[in-house]
């Protein structure tokens, strides 16, 4: 019975890891990155086999993706192995891999909260190494697919300038969205960027607003 319980717990953990990776693939694609068909299309059984072949070490299931519009713009996605508090070691590993591949941006996915030292290490790594961090729990479902979450579209710098010119306003006059907002984090939005938000409207068909990331 004890062995059976351990296997059930392992399977549950594997399922969470699988779901988080799947959401991560969707998130990368929504940010404009190219995701390999192996990563985004593999089923759970194939994923488990690959995980076993990597000695069940999440850190070995590394993902690297290039941006559609600029192949030199790449990102590393790293899953931390620690099942308890995540310390500085994964941050050092990520920075080392970023230097090795000449990549400036990374996403760290941990199973638990980061220690205070780990948070400081992420801050210290910037601006040369920009590391975002997500809890596995935050990626179990794709929040942008929820019916209550409207469509978000990031404006380019030119589109932002055209918007401000069209309405003869300064960016500070736009409504705001916090960069720590869950949807803003999903899209990797940075302070100063403007996002277009489209909501369904019973009268007009759709209702469009713009928000400045602060």
UniProtKB/TrEMBL annotation:
One of its GO terms (molecular function) is DNA binding. Residues 14-98 form the RNA polymerase Rpb5 N-terminal domain. SUPFAM superfamilies: Eukaryotic RPB5 N-terminal domain, RPB5-like RNA polymerase subunit. The keyword Nucleus applies. Residues 141-213 form the RNA polymerase subunit H/Rpb5 C-terminal domain. The keyword Transcription applies. It is found in: Nucleus. GO terms for cellular component: RNA polymerase I complex; RNA polymerase II, core complex; RNA polymerase III complex. Keywords: DNA-directed RNA polymerase, Nucleus, Transcription. One of its GO terms (biological process) is transcription elongation by RNA polymerase I. Transmembrane segments: none annotated. InterPro entries: Arch_Rpo5/euc_Rpb5 (IPR014381), RNA_pol_Rpb5_N (IPR005571), RNA_pol_Rpb5_N_sf (IPR036710), RNA_pol_subH/Rpb5_C (IPR000783), RNA_pol_subH/Rpb5_CS (IPR020608), RPB5-like_sf (IPR035913). Belongs to the archaeal Rpo5/eukaryotic RPB5 RNA polymerase subunit family. HAMAP family: RNApol_Rpo5_RPB5 (MF_00025). This is Putative DNA-directed RNA polymerase 2. The lineage of its organism: Eukaryota, Sar, Alveolata, Apicomplexa, Conoidasida.
